[in-house]
Amino acid sequence: MRFVIITGLSGAGKSQAVKSFEDLGYFCVDNLPPKLIPKFADLCFQSQGKIEKVALVIDIRGGIFFDDLVEVLKDLEVGDYSHEILFLEASDEVLIKRFKETRRNHPLAPRGLVSVGINEERKKLGQIKSMADQIINTSDLKPKELKEKIREIYQDHQNDHRMLINILSFGFKYGIPLDSDLVFDVRFLPNPFYIESLRSHTGKDEQVQNYVLKFEDTKTFIQKLEDMADFLIPNYVKEGKSQLVISIGCTGGKHRSVTIANSLYHSLTQKGHWVVINHRDIEKDREALRE
Q1: If you average pLDDT over residues 272-290, what whole number do you get?
Q2: From start to end of the chain, where are the E strands?
Q3: Which candidate among 79, 148, 183, 199 keeps its CA 20 to 30 Å from the CA of 69?
Q4: What are the φ and ψ backbone dihedral angles of 254, each rounded to 5 degrees?
Q5: Each residue of 116-154: pLDDT tens digit?
Q6: Cα separation of 108 and 100, whole Å?
């Protein structure tokens, strides 16, 4: 199991870091009191593989509880709990600028100068920093660049370059899915709804699939759609995107969109991508008829 403790200076990017760990599939806990770490670690290590990656944010917000961190980390080593420490820091100038931009007070100087709080925090974190396995200075890093750095260090290399692709079929008359990244309209294809023997079936049924897929326009569209996916997916991964929602819509979300969505799903799965598929509106016409 990979057990990462994230700590460092206030304003150095720990909030952004924990979001990046969440995107990598880590079970994340923010601001856990240090004395609870051994019990939490014990639960995780005894989960029989159900929890394989954990990231804990421990920082000065813990107040008097934070002072226990050094001793707790030493106890973890004695207890043979394998763990890593990620320490985030930045220059005083950058930290002061970030606090001014967010109009937040420094936790160690709630009514005083931010620079005083930063100086005090550096003293408190000196020993922790010396124990760190990884130190990242975020002074010149944009959030996207920090995310990429964390991905390089902490991603499971067996799943490198894999992004969750969610393929979603829908009906335009029920609205475009709000979380769509890419939307494709297949209402230009012949509609099985107007074939009486196919109307009650869906794009999951072979007779509907055979009808939709027999047209040259359908074959051409599917080929172009797959070509576009092949081009876009590696570029989205390179950009740091962790999830992509591809929505395919027809009028009711029952026949054409379902057929095309299933076709794209099988194509991407065969190419080794991590893909899930959902048919949002496939049953809505049937529900309307029952009402």
Answers
A1: 78
A2: 2-8, 27-30, 53-57, 84-89, 134-137, 164-171, 182-185, 243-250, 274-279
A3: 148
A4: -120, -35
A5: 999 999 998 999 899 899 999 999 888 888 988 888 888
A6: 15
CATH code of domain 2-159? 3.40.50.300
Tell me if 14 is assigned to a ligand binding site: yes
Q: Do the annotations mark residue 11 as ligand-binding?
A: yes
Q: Is 1 strand, coil or helix?
A: coil
Q: Work out whether the CA dihedral 254, 256, 261, 262 comes out positive or negative.
A: positive
> 60: annotated binding-site residue?
yes
Residue 59 marked in a binding site: yes
Residue 15 annotated as part of some ligand binding site? yes
pLDDT above 70 (res 49): yes
Contact 156, 242 (CB under 8 A): no
- CA 274/CA 272 separation, integer angstroms: 7
Calculate ∠ Cα 235-138-96, nearest 5°.
Answer: 135
Residue span(s) of the chain under CATH 3.40.50.300 come to 2-159
Report pLDDT for 290: 45
User: Chain-centre distance of CA 43, in angstroms?
Assistant: 24
Instruction: Phi first, then psi: give them for residue 160, nearest 5 degrees.
Output: -55, 145
